[in-house]
TrEMBL record:
Protein name: Carboxypeptidase regulatory-like domain-containing protein
Keyword Hydrolase part of the UniProt annotation: yes
Gene3D superfamilies noted in UniProt: Carboxypeptidase-like, regulatory domain
Pfam families from the UniProt entry: CarboxypepD_reg (PF13620)
Record organism: Candidatus Fimenecus excrementigallinarum
Superkingdom as given in the UniProt entry: Bacteria
Annotated signal peptide: 1-23
Keyword Membrane: yes
Molecular-function GO terms, alphabetical: carbohydrate binding; carboxypeptidase activity
SUPFAM superfamilies referenced in this protein's UniProt entry, alphabetically: Starch-binding domain-like
Amino acid sequence: MRKTAAFLLCFMLLLVCPVAASAQGTPGGGIDATIYASVPDSHWITVEAEHAQVTLDGQGGAQLKAARLSEPRLLIRPENGYRVTRVTLNGTDVTDAVIGGYYTLEPVYEDKTLTVSTEAVQQETDDTHDISGTIVDESGNPVPGVTVDIGGHTGVTDEDGHFTVEDVPDGRHPVTIIGPDGEILGYTEIEIVDGQIGVTEGEDGSFTITSPTDAALDLEMTITSDGRIQIGKVTDVTPAVPGSDIPKTGRVGGAAAVCILLPAAVCVLAVRLARAKGKRRSA
């Protein structure tokens, strides 16, 4: 009777529980049972983000699928005119772990919720810049045929990796390198501020570029193997004077201008004096 009751109990458990079980009677009247739990092979990362996009392996959306026990690497990109202020994973603040827009999770064994908070970036100036540059890979080879997006302003690299993006305003901008098939090859963020020309990298992987008002800029940009963009050098390229056929490739300071213009003025004055003397003699 006991064996029959135990068997019926196991059978009922099989009907109501999401597990597989096998039972076998023992000489002592007990039951040996092996229970196999069903383990999912993937988990969902639910994205809650306003004015930002989160992608995994190039795929975006409100839910991202990650293989179980994988370490998914997410790209968090704010919309133009916004910046990311806080990132949480299942309520835990992970903002400091986001480097250059990328965040790598620990091995995933359950569903997760990623929340991204943003704020609008105030543009306090109307200054704009034409930004040119060269895109290369880590081996120094030019990267042709890719789109360079700086805050919604775009340009395409030629066969030598050169590009030009016009009318980029001062302020903070996402910078994205997009391949011919729409895949994201590299990402970073830059902030352009008024000052002496230069570039510095922050702890969060973004770059601050200081530039004189309305200066044209030339950047050396490298796409790293892990999808980041490194900016090695920034050069100030002053636009040509309207009506002049001689382009200017740098800004000339006051002392330098005196050194250049004074000898020229002396030469012109000497020529005019010589001509005046010649006229008086002929008279």
